[in-house]
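Check out a protein:
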Amino acid sequence: MTHQARKRFGQHFLRDEAVVDAIVRAIDPQADDRMVEIGPGLSALTAPLLDRLDHLTAVELDRDLAQRLRARWGVDRLTVVEADALTVDFSGLVPGDGPAPDAETGGPAVPRLRVVGNLPYNISTPLLFHLMRWADLVRDQHFMLQREVIDRMVARPGDSQYGRLSVMLQARYRMTHLFDVAPDAFDPPPKVMSAIVRMRPLAADAWRRPADPAVFDRLVSRVFEHRRKMIRGSLGDWTERLDWDALGVAPTARPQELSVTQFLDMADALAASGVA
């Protein structure tokens, strides 16, 4: 029985076995991994992942596809969460009370959750931000996305693609553009080139948590809404709250010229000044 791709769900089903094999090799799943697949669709990745995993959790919004998944694999191998991934509490998919102590050293906790998926392109950016809430529980994430989105995710200061997505994600993850995937690898083929990205949350000693994450988010959003303006023109009454010399930031700079660290410095200074 065939399944007609549903445009409202942004469905493009991966069918190229060589691409599937390359993705699975990049993920390198181990039998006891706690892995979640978002948008399994017609099981192009689900089946080879289950060849290596003891168990897999799949988040699938399409009722018909969720039913197919349940019929093909028993609950001992596959747990199907029939829901919009944007509404899922991913902490509930981690066994126990979160990260477990390192089994070999007894040292710092090791995040347990691995997340993979061919993300619906129409919700990819909101979903990436949604997943940030549980980054401390995640070991890594491997996603298929529009290449344009991945170019923005990994862009560096000065690049034309550098923007809010770059800053917000790079403040929390180390990201690698692994390889591109052509439209003809899908059915139906999308109108854009796709790519695979690896996202690994920064280690505790490398991650700098903003003093007030909401202020950091507001700052980055505010300046990139007017990316061609000088920063002082975008910040309005916040401009006078900042000691530009102490920050080492020129108020005449454009937002795409600033590093993630400089944005964090500015956000912390604003939080300290009473911005909430």
The two ends are 55 Å apart (CA to CA). The CA atoms of residues 255 and 264 lie 13 Å apart. Confidence is low (pLDDT under 50) at residues 1-10, 100-108. The first helix runs from residue 17 to 27.
